[in-house]
Amino acid sequence: MVKQSLTRLGVAVGGLALTLTAGAGIASADPDYGPMINTTCTYDQAVAALRAQNPMFASYLEQSPPNVAFLHQYVNSTPDQRVALLHKVEHNQGAQQAFPIFQQMFTTCNNF
């Protein structure tokens, strides 16, 4: 069930991310996942940050129960568990384009 949800999340997030980043250049350097892994934010803080920074992506995320469940699981996980979750979805279509959105969300969510 979790693997299927992760796959759906990756495909869903990837599709939206591709739409949002059409025409943008893709960096070749490995991204810094530190803010995503070491976050102390709650689900509500993360979603509030996402709504403020990217309302279209937030709306898309919130309309998908598997995505909501994944984000709940993610924020309630330990940093080591988050690394494992990221590794499960990092090669899904569009994940590399979606990760910067989540990285920004987790970098600023303590402000919400």
TrEMBL record:
Signal is among the record's keywords: yes
InterPro entries: MHB, UCP010611
A GO molecular-function annotation: heme binding
Signal in keyword set: yes
Source organism, top-level taxon: Bacteria
Keywords from the named record: Signal
Protein name as catalogued: Hemophore-related protein
Organism, scientific name: Mycobacterium rhizamassiliense
